[in-house]
Amino acid sequence: MNNCFQFWKAAQSFVTCVRYDGVEVHDMYCDALTRPEPVHDFCIGRECQPRWEASSWSECSRTCGEGFQFRQVRCWKMLSPGLDSSVYSDLCTMADLERPVERRACKSPACGPQWEVAEWMECPAKCGRKAQVARDVRCSDETRPCDPLTKPPNVKNCTGPPCERHWTVSEWGPCSGSCGQGKMVRHVYCKAPEGRVVPENQCSAENKPLAIHPCGDRDCAPHWLSQDWERCNTTCGRGVKRRIVLCVGISGGKFQIFDEEACVVNEKPEEENTCFERPCFKWYTTPWSECTKTCGIGVRMRDVKCYQGRELVRGCDPLTKPVAKQTCTLQPCPTEPPDESCQDRPSTNCLLALKVNLCSHWYYSKACCHSCRAVRPPAS
């Protein structure tokens, strides 16, 4: 027997075993001890009222610790004698019927220590080159060690962006003053071939055009000219920022770069400084759980936690939060082949069912199994 949850469905004097996704299956897949008594005279002389029906609970989403169980909840209504069908949930909601819960917590034996991993950092490699990228890996329990044999890797190889990225510049702005003080500024961008602006580290730093240029007179003695600070080399915590400082001047109206000795060496501005970005809040995730199903479509879970150092905090960016739940698609659940010797139920108008194309409905496919064989698509 497969583990995809099944439940009994009763309609008028007819009880069937229905799979978690609403497909009717053989009675062997349902627990005989829970088989309901057939429902007689569901509604007589009045319009049938809708009702909520819930499937059996799935297995716990985690094999240890706290997890969740799921089930399907659908609104059902007897539309006509012999036609009991799922309907829009609004009908049950408007009837002020309390919807059964679709998720509940479940607890398995306590988990041992688990490895928790942060997201991979940005690849530091320049275009077309290879490097290594790292991530933080930590054990969830400080008092007991995690199994070193199952430790996820904290370093992997990475390749820099394609080298067709190139620098582009805007027009120079106006001169801000006289010789030695005057500067012209322009914007410098790193762009992909399709014109999209990308991070500057995807272009070669060696040939980055100047964003700040001296100006003021036709001849200007050598002096120090500082470019803008580059981005801090860390995304959180304390890091280092750098900038280009050049000894430059203007000779005969032309810009010129001089050796550093041509400028006053002890007046050279700093090329490197410390910087501090936001506190280091990091998302960590545990390994994925087993799928909640063994066939069909299920769910798998993992814990997602925010840490600052060793402390659990709430400061991580919710926009970068890793997903904690995702579906898992397995092989289709088994169904029984059609019974070639079945007979139509005498109490059901199977000619009408064929005429109005009701053979796809679970009830008529069973009650009119002989007649519906004619419209059933051949097995592939």
Automatic annotation (TrEMBL):
<keyword id="KW-0677">Repeat</keyword>
<protein>
    <recommendedName>
        <fullName>PLAC domain-containing protein</fullName>
    </recommendedName>
</protein>
<keyword id="KW-0964">Secreted</keyword>
<dbReference type="InterPro" id="IPR036383">
    <property type="entry name" value="TSP1_rpt_sf"/>
</dbReference>
<feature type="domain" description="PLAC">
    <location>
        <begin position="338"/>
        <end position="376"/>
    </location>
</feature>
<dbReference type="Pfam" id="PF08686">
    <property type="entry name" value="PLAC"/>
</dbReference>
<dbReference type="InterPro" id="IPR000884">
    <property type="entry name" value="TSP1_rpt"/>
</dbReference>
<dbReference type="Pfam" id="PF19030">
    <property type="entry name" value="TSP1_ADAMTS"/>
</dbReference>
<dbReference type="InterPro" id="IPR050439">
    <property type="entry name" value="ADAMTS_ADAMTS-like"/>
</dbReference>
<dbReference type="GO" id="GO:0031012">
    <property type="term" value="C:extracellular matrix"/>
</dbReference>
<dbReference type="GO" id="GO:0005576">
    <property type="term" value="C:extracellular region"/>
</dbReference>
<dbReference type="InterPro" id="IPR010909">
    <property type="entry name" value="PLAC"/>
</dbReference>
<keyword id="KW-0732">Signal</keyword>
